[in-house]
Amino acid sequence: MTGVAVLGDPVRTSGYRLAGARLLPATTAAEVRRQWRELPADVGVVLLTPAAAEVLGPQALESAVVLTVVLPP
Fold this sequence. Notes:
This protein is 33% helix and 27% strand. By secondary structure, the chain is an alpha/beta fold. The protein has one domain: ATPase, V1 complex, subunit F (Rossmann fold, 3-Layer(aba) Sandwich), CATH 3.40.50.10580. Strands 2-1-3-4 form a four-stranded parallel β-sheet. Strand 1 (3-8), helix 1 (10-13) and strand 2 (22-25) form a beta-alpha-beta unit. The mean pLDDT is 94.
């Protein structure tokens, strides 16, 4: 089964745990990049905070490996 992860500021993403998403907390650009590089193999959908999406750039949003969705501001 493909999992869903949420990457970004822990304050903005914590509620997604209630829906069963895996939380990938990141408060700095370095943490965002590390979490992205170390995505678990079973994750197929990644919800990104706008700040995380900005750090990763358009290449991440066009990933062929996982489906990415940027959360509203």
